[in-house]
Amino acid sequence: QTLRNEDALATESGSENRPLSSTVRKLWIGPVTLNGSKGDFLTFKPRSTPWSGDLIRWPLTMTHQILMQCTSLQSLALITLNQNDWSFIESAIPASLKSLWMGPAHGAIVLKNFRRNPRISHFTSIDTFMRDDEVVDIVVSPHTRVFRRIFTSGAGQFARDQLACLTRATGLREMRL
């Protein structure tokens, strides 16, 4: 609501006004607990996942609108985004983004599909199977410096089997499993 309200968008910056959304640098879009009270805009219940429980998740259209407004965003965590919804969000990832955290079970990550061409230097994937071509795409990007794969259970063996995908990486400084 704040991003849509023209009066609320102006913040003083010297003698010029700039949109409030342009000041957002770090953003978490994921489950929130409401301590027994429900907000009008947080009524969407996700399918049951190990991460969901009684948590509420942001609607896809609202997530897209927020990302389109946040033009100076540098770090983004997209948690519990349905893997089938990722293709609707990737076009809204701002060009300013440098760090992306996603999981569990996010959709396929293909950097050339990011229409706004962010230069992501840090990518973290949580509890997600990734195809070999996705891993290669991320590690051969000239911008990728850190690539992390986090697993909350022993299911990370297939990620260790993909270490051969790193042979073409030139700018990658760190890979963590």
TrEMBL record:
Protein name: F-box domain-containing protein
Organism name: Gloeophyllum trabeum (strain ATCC 11539 / FP-39264 / Madison 617) (Brown rot fungus)
Higher taxonomy: Eukaryota, Fungi, Dikarya, Basidiomycota, Agaricomycotina
